[in-house]
Amino acid sequence: MSNPRPLEEEAYDMSGARVALTLCVTKAREGSEADLVALERMFQQLGFESTIKRDPTAQQFQEELDKFQQAIDARKDFVSCAFVVLMAHGLEGQLEGEDEQMVELENLFEVLNNKNCQALRAKPKVYIVQACRGEQMDPGETVGGGNIEMITKDRPQTIPTYTDALHIYSTVEGYLSYRHDKEGSCFIQTLVDVFTEMKGPILELLSEVTRRMAEAEVVQEGEAKKVNPEVQSTLRKRLYLQ
C-alpha cells in the first residue's frame, strides 16, 4: 500500500483590499446593536473596509447587495475578499426585511458569485447569516463517556460558478436562532471572539466557534436550549484572516 500524499496547502492571496457589508434589521431585534458593535471591532482588527446598513426593507437587502457588487467591480485596486453579514428574523431560505416582507437568501447569495461579480471571481466570499431558519428548538442530547491554474496555453482557465463561497448560518436548518436582549447573539459574539483571538484557516476557526457554542447553554423561556451554527463551504483554498 503506497503512502498517502500530504495535502497541498494553497491559500487565498489576502494582500489586497478586504471589504465587508453588514445589513441588519434592529427593529424588534433587541441586542442586535451589541452584535453590530462586536462585528465592527472584528472588521477593524482584521483590516476590512466595513459598511453597515440598519433596518433594510426586503427590497433594500437586494438593492444594497447589488450596490456593493457594483462598487467592488468598479474598483481599480485588487480586492482579496468580501464578507456579507445578514441579520434579521427569518425562515428557512428567507430573511424578513424591516417592512416584514421576505427576501430569498439564494437571490442575495447569487449577487457575488463568480458569474455576477468579476472582481471577486475565484476570491473568497463569506456570508454570515444571523437569523432563524424555522421554529424548532433543540433541548440537547446526553453524551456518554490540485492546483486549478495548471492549464494549457490554448485553453482559458475556468472555474465553477459557485466556488469560493462560504455560508455561515447561526443555526441549522429548521431551527430557531437566539439573541440576548442586551448582550447580543451567542453566535455573533462567539464568532467575533474566535476570529479576533485566534489564528488559523477560517474553517478551523469555525470548528472552534461550533465547539464553544455546543458547550454553551441558551436559556429560553426558563429552559436551557442548545444551538449550533452550520457551515457550507465551496472554498478551494485555505482562507486566513489574521
From TrEMBL:
The keyword Hydrolase applies. This is Caspase-14. CDD domains: CASc. Belongs to the peptidase C14A family. Residues 155-242 form the Caspase family p10 domain. It is found in: Cytoplasm; Nucleus. Keywords: Coiled coil, Cytoplasm, Differentiation, Hydrolase, Nucleus, Protease, Thiol protease, Zymogen. It comes from the Eukaryota. The keyword Kinase does not apply. It comes from Myotis lucifugus. Heterodimer of a large and a small subunit, both processed from the precursor; the mature active form is a p17/p10 dimer and the intermediate form a p20/p8 dimer. Residues 88-115 form a coiled coil. SUPFAM superfamilies: Caspase-like. Pfam families: Peptidase_C14. One of its GO terms (molecular function) is cysteine-type endopeptidase activity. Residues 29-136 form the Caspase family p20 domain. GO terms for biological process: cell differentiation; positive regulation of neuron apoptotic process; proteolysis. One of its GO terms (cellular component) is nucleoplasm. InterPro entries: Caspase-like_dom_sf, Caspase_cys_AS, Pept_C14, Pept_C14_caspase, Pept_C14_p10, Pept_C14_p20, Pept_C14A.
